[in-house]
């Protein structure tokens, strides 16, 4: 299954890399939410790989999905064919493909591919997390004032204000703050130890499924924004190196 996830992420990523420098067709899906021809082309590529390797599988992909229930017994593939569409459409070179497989709400394996840097992050539960062939480990920073915080911005006004209030509390206490616009890459940066914390108030399961197992297998911790166990059908996410998890929770979150 990990090999299928990797192949799907790589093939979709190659589609994105080929289309990146060309003009884009942009469709508005909703508030601060767009879709390009590349999201759909990459989705076709990823779904094709999963269907070939795992016939009959349930695939929950951002642009094409039916109803799903996280408690179902059926294994579920969560696919974000282009995580960071706003970056992609503007020519900012920060985006990825995310492919994860969950069984009864537990992610078993996943791959996140950054096609421009040819960086493949992947993990299988119990087997460690890797970037290309290198084993990943979260950072050992234990104090907030040493930490680099990554966050992404929700689309809706009220949630964006909540996130800004949380940041208002955190920013004076930490080393640095960044926002890259790809949740999947944000989680992978925590896994590799280049960032210490990632949070976002609203994400879909396709954004996080692969990143969850990559962070956990790198020794990090993933919960909801209150520090409670996460659920793939809930919107709020906090991933850290584990050492500063409690300190972040105590600094927020703002409701
Ligand atoms: P996307 O590019 O696939 O749309 C930037 O805000 C990051 O958060 C991106 O990974 C973006 O995913 C994701 N994101 C933001 N708001 C979201 C929402 N309401 N639902 C799902 N993903 C969201
Ligand atoms: Ca997407």
Secondary structure layout:
Layout: H1 2-20, E1 26-30, E2 33-36, H2 37-53, E3 58-61, E4 76-83, H3 85-90, E5 96-103, E6 106-114, E7 119-124, E8 129-131, E9 134-135, E10 148-151, H4 157-170, E11 176-178, H5 183-192, E12 197-200, H6 205-217, E13 221-223, E14 237-240, H7 245-251
Parallel strand pairs: 3-4, 10-11, 10-12
Antiparallel strand pairs: 1-2, 4-5, 5-6, 6-7, 7-8, 8-9, 12-14, 13-14
Helix pairs in contact: 1-2, 5-6
Bound molecules: adenosine-2'-monophosphate and calcium ion.
Kindly describe this structure:
By secondary structure, the chain is α+β, with helices and mostly antiparallel strands. 34% of the residues lie in helices and 26% in strands. The longest helix has 19 residues, at 2-20. Helix 1 packs antiparallel against helix 2 (37-53) and helix 5 runs parallel beside helix 6. The mean pLDDT is 96. The protein has 7 helices and 14 strands. The strands form 3 sheets. Strands 3-4-5-6-7-8-9 form a 7-stranded mixed β-sheet, with helices on both faces. Strands 11-10-12-14-13 form a 5-stranded mixed β-sheet. Adenosine-2'-monophosphate (2AM) binds next to strand 4.
Helix content class: 25-40%
Regions with pLDDT < 50 over 5+ consecutive residues? Answer: none
Distance between the termini: 38 Å
Spatial arrangement of strands, main beta sheet: 3-4-5-6-7-8-9
Question: What is the succession of H and E elements?
Answer: HEEHEEHEEEEEEHEHEHEEH
Instruction: Note the beta-strand portion.
Output: 25-35%
Largest sheet: 7 strands, mixed
């Amino acid at each position: 299954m990990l090999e299928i996830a990797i192949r799907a992420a790589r093939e979709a990523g190659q589609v994105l890399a080929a289309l990146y420098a060309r003009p884009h067709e942009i469709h508005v899906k909703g508030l601060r939410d767009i879709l390009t021809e590349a999201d759909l082309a990459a989705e076709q590529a990823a779904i094709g790989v999963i269907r070939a390797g795992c016939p009959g599988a349930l695939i929950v992909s951002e642009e094409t999905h039916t109803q799903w229930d996280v408690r179902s017994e059926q294994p579920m593939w969560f696919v974000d064919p282009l995580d960071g569409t706003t970056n992609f459409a503007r020519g900012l070179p920060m985006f990825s493909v995310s492919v994860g497989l969950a069984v009864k709400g537990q992610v078993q394996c996943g791959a996140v591919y950054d096609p421009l840097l040819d960086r493949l992050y992947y993990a299988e539960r119990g087997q460690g997390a890797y970037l290309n062939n290198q084993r990943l480990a979260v950072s050992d920073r234990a104090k907030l004032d040493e930490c680099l915080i990554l966050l992404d911005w929700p689309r809706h006004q009220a949630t964006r204000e909540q996130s800004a209030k949380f940041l208002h509390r955190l920013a004076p206490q930490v080393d640095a703050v960044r926002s890259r616009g790809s949740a999947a890459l944000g989680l992978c940066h925590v896994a590799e130890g280049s960032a210490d914390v990632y949070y976002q108030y609203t994400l879909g399961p396709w954004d996080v499924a692969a990143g969850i197992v990559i962070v956990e297998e790198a020794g990090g911790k993933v919960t909801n924004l209150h520090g409670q166990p996460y659920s793939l059908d809930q919107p709020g996410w906090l991933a850290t190196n584990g050492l500063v998890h409690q300190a972040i929770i105590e600094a927020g979150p703002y409701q």
